[in-house]
Amino acid sequence: MKTLMLTCISMLFCFCQLQAQTNSNYDSVLAKKLQADDYGMKSYILVMLKKGSAADTSKTTLATIFRGHMDNIKKLAAENKLVLAGPTGNNDKGYEGIFVFNTSNINEAKQWLSTDPAFQSKHLDAELYEWYGPAALQEIISLNQKITKKSF
After folding, report:
1. Is the model's pLDDT at 8 over the cut of 70?
2. Which CATH number is 35-145's, of 3.30.70.1060, 3.90.76.10, 3.30.930.10, 3.40.1190.10?
3. What is the pLDDT of residue 56?
C-alpha cells in the first residue's frame, strides 16, 4: 500500500513537472507582437465564402468584379486584416473559399467584407464564425510572399 501511494505521488509529481515546463524556444517579443496567449493561440473570425444570390453576369463584368475581389484581398492582407485566404475545391455546400480575419469581432469582419466587389455585387456571400487558432498564422502572408513566383 505504501509503495502504491509513493508510486502515485511520484507519478503526480512527474505529471506536474511536465505541465509546468515552458517552451525553450519561446519568444516573448514575437508572442506580444502577434497577441498570442500562453498557448500561442488567439481569436480570429473564420469566413466561409459561398456562392451569392446574384444572377448570371456577362463574362466581362464578372472578370472586373473578381479582379476587384483579388485586389481587395491584397489590400486587406497588406493592412494585416486578412491573414489567410484561398478557394475551396468543388463541394455540395456551395462554398467557394475561406478567409481568416485578424479580429475577434464579427461586426468588424462584416465591415471588411463589405469592401469587396464580389460581396457588393452579391456574387459571393459569407458565413462568419469565431475561431481560435495559432497566432503565428499572421506570419503566413509575409512568408508566402517569399515563395510566390507569380501573382494574381
Report:
1. no
2. 3.30.70.1060
3. 77
